[in-house]
Design a protein that fits this description.
The protein contains five helices and 19 strands. By secondary structure, the protein is α+β, with helices and mostly antiparallel strands. It starts with 7 loop residues before the first strand and ends with a strand.
């Protein structure tokens, strides 16, 4: 971050292959790690070139050879390197969209209610919000009646109360529930009329009045039972909560030859915060699969240094045993200087790691 501007050479806006705007925030992350997160997504890598300039370079395994070395004797320590090789033959890249979309979660019980009502046919409408703060939204609400408001008279159900869904808020924040008590007014009036009639008959009775008096006592009990009767009710409200989540995308790349050879799929899943659609996920997956396959062809060797060789170059060398020409993509290079010691000559030696193309 403290480097002078002339020591930094970064591509201009829009010049990176497949470039697009990213929305991301890093917390407690080193600057170089942030840069690597970004360059990894586009298949680039940061490095200091042979002129000591900090820049980035695209991983390009189809470019022409930068330098050709035809002398196999100039190389020593040629060896395969499986340090980064793996059986991975399927790469899955997952990403999220930029914005949130509305989603519906599994149905759940939102609230419940219970109470008592009188016998005279009263009714009321109650409003039930889907949360205490009145901010939660739900869809497809329904009512499960556990106990309907009704009154039993002499073990016979009389009057029918009602619990029903009356209104659903278009914005889906609440519902209105209609609760109606059973209407037993005519039953009460008829019972009182029967009591008065039976009482009048009893008063005019001269002989054998016991039956009338007993009937009056029964009617009095019925009237008082009706006047004191209440209807209990209980119900639950269910609905599907509504939330917002980012849409997820994913794409995969396969090494079909490896899958056929070993007989199973070895999958690696990676979340890329800069993939906002399927097409970008596919580009990243294809590139990552290409790198995974190249890691299986990794080699190391040493040679006399060429000061213009650098990471990302493709070198053409001669295999020390088969003498066949082969292209190697340089993934790592370290340069060591040794001083002349007695009869031994000093010089610069490049230790190179790379992928055989």
């Amino acid at each position: 971050a403290n480097m002078p501007e002339e020591m930094i050479d970064l591509p201009s806006t829009g010049s990176i292959t497949g470039s697009h705007t990213i929305d991301h925030q890093w917390i407690d992350t080193r600057l170089m790690d942030c840069i690597r997160d970004i360059t990894d997504h586009w298949g680039y890598f940061p490095y200091f070139n042979s002129d000591g300039i900090f820049t980035i370079r695209k991983i390009n395994m189809s470019a022409d050879a930068a330098h050709i070395y035809s002398d196999s004797d100039a190389m020593v320590g040629f060896s395969p390197d499986d340090a980064y090789g793996s059986f991975t033959n399927q790469v899955v890249i997952k990403g999220e969209g930029r914005g949130f979309i509305e989603v519906t979660y599994a149905e759940e019980m939102i609230t419940s209610d219970s109470g008592t009502l009188g016998w005279w046919g009263c009714s009321e409408t109650r409003r039930y919000y889907f949360s205490e703060d009145q901010q939660r939204r739900c869809s497809n609400p329904r009512i499960v009646v556990l106990q309907s408001p009704s009154i039993n008279i002499l073990f016979v159900e009389k009057g029918g109360g009602e619990i029903s869904l009356l209104y659903v808020d278009p914005d889906r924040y609440f519902i209105d529930v209609y609760i109606a008590a059973p209407d037993l007014i005519m039953v009460v009036v008829a019972s009182i009329a029967a009591l008065i009639t039976m009482a009048a008959i009893s008063m005019m009775c001269v002989l054998d009045c016991g039956y009338y008096i007993f009937a009056c006592m029964m009617l009095v009990s019925v009237v008082f039972y009706l006047l004191a009767a209440v209807a209990n009710y209980s119900f639950e409200i269910y609905a599907f909560p509504i939330g917002a989540e980012k849409q997820t995308f994913q794409a995969q790349a396969d090494d079909m030859d490896s899958q056929r050879k070993i007989g199973f799929i070895a999958k690696t899943e990676t979340e890329d915060p800069f993939c906002y659609d399927v097409a970008t996920c596919q580009l990243v997956a294809d590139r990552e699969m290409q790198v995974v396959m190249a890691q299986r062809r990794r080699i190391t060797f040493k040679k006399i240094a060429h000061l213009q060789d650098e990471i990302g170059d493709i070198l053409q060398i001669v295999h020390p045993y088969s003498t066949q020409a082969m292209n190697v993509y340089v993934t790592s290079i370290s340069r060591a200087y040794s001083k002349p010691d007695g009869m031994a000559d000093g010089g610069l030696i490049d230790s190179i790691e790379g992928w055989v193309l």
